[in-house]
Amino acid sequence: MRDVLGADAWYVFHKRTSLGDADAVVIPGGFSYGDYLRAGAIAGFSPIVSAIRDFAGRGGPILGICNGFQILTEMGLLPGALTRNAHLRFECRDVYVRVESEGPFTDMGKGTILRLPIAHADGRYHTTERGLAELEQQGQIAFRYSTRRGGAPNGSNANPNGSVGDIAGVYNRERNVLGMMPHPERASEAILGNDDGLAIFQSLRRHLGFE
Amino acid sequence: MSAPANFPGEPESSPAIAREFGLADHEWDRVLTTLSRKPSYAELGVISVMWSEHCSYKSSRIHLGRLPTTGPQVVQGPGENAGAVDIGDGFCAVFKMESHNHPSYIEPYQGAATGVGGILRDVFTMGARPVASLNSLRFGRPDHPKTPHLLKGVVAGIGGYGNCIGVPTVGGEVQFDASYDGNILVNAFTVGIAKTEELFFGVAEGVGNPIIYVGAKTGRDGIHGATMASAEFGDETESKLPTVQVGDPFMEKLLLEACLEIFKTDCLAGVQDMGAAGLTSSSVEMAARAGNGVELDLDAIPRRTKALSPYEMLLSESQERMLMVAKEGREQEVFDICAKWDLDASIVGRVTDTGRFVCKATPGYDPFDGTGTRDPVVVVDLPVDLLTDAAPKYDRPQRPRTERASIVSLTGDAPEDLGAEIVRLIGSPNIGSRSWIWRQYDHIVQDGTVIRPGDGDAAVIRVFCRDETGTREKYLAISVDCNARHVELDPFAGAAMAVAECTRNLVCVGAKPLGLTDCLNFGNPEVPEQMWRFSQAIDGLSAACRALGAPVVSGNVSLYNETDRRSILPTPTVATVGQLEDPSHRLGLGFVRDGDVIAHLGEPSRGVLGGSEWLVQRTGSVTGAPVGIDLDAEVALQHAMLELIGNRLLQSAHDISDGGIAICLAESCIAEGLGARVTLPPTDDAPAHALLFSEEPSRIIVSISPSDVGDVGEICRRYGVPFRKIGRVGGATLLIEDICDVPIEELAEAHAAALDFIVHEPS
After folding, report:
1. Closest Cα of chain B to A123: distance in Å?
2. Are B104 and B149 in contact (CB under 8 A)?
3. What is the ipTM of this complex?
4. Alpha-helical runs (H) found in A36-162
5. For B377-431, what is each residue's pLDDT tens digit?
6. Any idea where the domains of chain A sit in the sequence?
7. Which end of chain A is least crowded, N or C, by CB within 10 Å?
8. Hey, of A2, A90, A156, which one would you mutate to test binding to chain B, going by the most B CBs within 10 A of its CB?
9. Would the pLDDT of B249 be above 90?
10. Residue A183 bears catalytic tag
11. How many CB atoms lie within 10 A of CB A153?
12. Is A74 a catalytic residue?
C-alpha cells in the first residue's frame, strides 16, 4: 500500500484494541494462529476484533484477502464459510475472476476480467441455497472464478477449489466489507509479471476521494 | 570434582548401552581413557550424540577442509549456523541447506516439515529474515509401492510448514531412482537477508551471562534423532517412529518475529537454535566457539511432559526452541519481547570459564508435582573439547569402484519414431512438469517472486533491504541441483557437473554466482568404495567451485544413506545464490517471439548417453560412459552469457540438462506455447537419438532477436564459446530437421501429466 500506492499505511498488532484514524482496513492473508483449529477461527476472537466490528458498523471500507476473508466470515461480518478445497490440497497458481458487482473495491465495472493468484488450502466458499439466492439477489457476489475469456468454469479447474456458484469474493449487504480468496496485492506490480490487482486498490482510493 | 551422580531410574552406562547409542567399541574405550572413569548414563547420551556422524562429521571432516570457502564476497564461511555472502550496501544473503532424510522416510509429512523448520531457524538465528526456500527431493522408482505415499507426504509437509510461516518455496528439484527406494532424500534450503554488521553468531560469550531458553517446551520427541541420522536403515526402521519430531510452524513464526525483535535491542551475546541433538549440541557448540564453558540447571527446563530424565532433556529434539545468551542485567528485555509474542522464556544456566559442559538436576524433582525441594546434583560434567574438537576424526580407507573398467560406450537401440520418443520422455516423472509439486507451495508470498517455478532455469526473487537511509530493492537468483547418476558414473566429474549446472542456471536467468551451500548425501563411509566416492566428489566440487567463483559458505553431510546394505546413488546436492545487477536483465526459459533466432552455445554433443535419463529408462540401470566436463569451457560459457545478458542481447536462455537437447527445446516451446524449427548441429557419426538425449554439460539454448545475432556471435567468439544458429522460433510444432515434427500441444499435455500416474490426481 505504501510502496506502490503511496498510501499512509501501518500495521495494527492483533493485541491492540484501536485502529487509529484509518480510512480503510485491510486484513491480509497469512495463517493466523497457524489456522490449526479452522482457518481464521481464533483470529475472529483477537482483541482488535471489536474495533474492526465498530469500523464496519460505521460503514468503513474493509478488505479481507485470503485468511482475511476467512476471518471476516468467522467474525460474521460476511456471510458463508470457507472450507477445505475440493481436491484437499493447498494450491498456489494464477486464476481468472470476473467482476460481478460494483462497490468501493470494484468500480472497474461488471464483467471486467482480472488475472490474480490464489494461495490457499481452505478457499471453497460455501453457503446454503437460500444464502446463495440472497447473495445473488442483493448483488453481493463481487467476483466469480472464470476462464481466461470470462466464461463460466462449468466444473473445470478454472474454479480452483470447488466454491459454490464459482464465488471468489463477496460483499456484505452494505457493500463496505469485501472478502476475496485471490491475492490482488501479489499482482500489483509489473516486475511481478502482473498488475491486474492494482485496479482493486485504485478503486478503493477513488472511493475514499483521493483522486 | 567427583564423578557425576547417576540419576535415579537411569541404568549404569556399559559397553552394551554405548553400542546401542551408536558408539564403536574403540570409541567407548576412548571415553574411559579420557575421563578416567565411567560416564553416567546422561553423559554417555551426550557423548554418543556429539560423536555421531551428524554432529561430529567424523568421517567427512578431513575431506571438507579441501573445499574452497573464501572469496571477497564471503561474509561468513562454514562453521556457523549458516553462511553469508555480500550483496552490496552493507547487506548480505544468509543461506544454508540441510538434510532431513531419515525422519522423512519414517514419517514423510512431519519429517519434511521439521526439515524446513530447522533450516529456517538456522537462517534467522543469524539475524536474517528468511525470504525464500528451495528443496531437493529424491524418491524411489516411480512405480515403487511406497513412492506415492512418500511423495505426497513430503510435499504436503514442506508446504504445510513453509506456507504457514509465510516464506515462499520458490523452486527445487526432484528425481526418482530405484536407489532411493528404501532411503529417500529431503534436502531443504533457505536464504535470508540481514545487515552485515548486525549478523548474530552462536557464541556463549561473557562469563556469568545468563543462558535463556525460548520457545516450545521440551518433550520426548526426537530423542537420539542425530544418532538415527547416522545409522543405516534395516527392517526395524519404522519402529523408530518416536525419534521423529513434530513441527509447529506457528510457534516458529512467533519465534522468528521475537528473535528478530530481540536482536535489534543488542541485549544478546549469542544465540543458537536447538536442532539436532537439541539442548546438548546448542549449548556445547556455543561454548566451544567462545572457548568457554556452560552450566545448565535442568530443573529449570520448560517441559510438557512429566518425569523427564536428564538424558531425555539433553537429547530431546523438540522443535521450535532457541537458546540465547543474554548480556548480564538485560534478561528482562528478552522476557518482555517473548511475552509480547506469547513465548515461554526462562533462565536455564550461565556461561562459565571452566571449559566444561556441566548439568545439574534434582533427583525426584518434577515441576509438575508443584512441590519437592530442589537440591541439584551434578549429572553431567564433561570437557567441552571432548565433545567438539577432540571428537573422533577418521581418515577412512578408500577403494575406487572396480567395475569401472568394464564401462563401455552404450547408445542403446535407436527408437523408430523419435517424435513419439520425445513425447514419451517429456511425460515421464524425471523429466515432466513438477507443477503438481510447486502448486502446493506458496511460491509468491512476500510479494517478491519475479521468476516463478517452471518459468526460468533458476528462481529470481526481489528482496527489500531496509536501513536508516531507506529501502533498496535487490534481486537474487537461487537454484539447487545434482544429478546423482552422473556422480555414480564419475564422482569427480559428476560433482563438478552439479556445481556447473547450478551456477549455469543462475547465469541463464541473468545472475552472477556469489556462493554455494551443499548437502552431501552418501552411503556408508565405512565401506571403502563409498568413502572413495565421497572423497572424489569433494575434489570435483572443489575444482568446480574454484573455477566458477562460487565458494562454499555452509553445508551439511548425511552419510549412512542405505537400507539393507543397498546404498543410494552418491548425491552431493548443491544450491547456489547469485545476484542480478539489474532486474531488467532477467530471462525466462521460454521462447517469446515468432521469428527469433535459436542458437546453440557450447560444444555440440558427441552423442555420449552415459547416465542419461533416456538410457536409464532403456536399460533399467545407471550405466554407460561418463559424459565428463571441461571446466574451462564451462567458465568461458558462463562468462560469455553474463556479458550477453548484461548487453540485453538475449530473449530466452535454457541450459541443456536432464533429457538432453530434445527436452531443452521442447520445454522452451511449451513455456509460451510457441513452436520451433531447428537443425541439430552436425556431428561425426553419432546416431540421432544419442544427439537428442545426451546430457553432456556446458551447453545452452538461447533465442535472439534477428538484429542482435551478429553481436551475440561476436561476444561468443571473443570468449571462445562455440556459437551456432540452429533455427527459428515459430509454428505450432517442434520440428527438428530429418528427425521429428511434434505438435507443441501434444508435448505440453504429456509434460503437464508427468506425475499423474504416481499421485493419481489430475494436475
Report:
1. 14
2. no
3. 0.95
4. 49-57, 67-75, 129-137
5. 999 999 999 999 999 999 999 999 866 544 555 667 788 899 999 999 999 999 9
6. 2-207
7. C
8. A90
9. yes
10. yes
11. 17
12. no
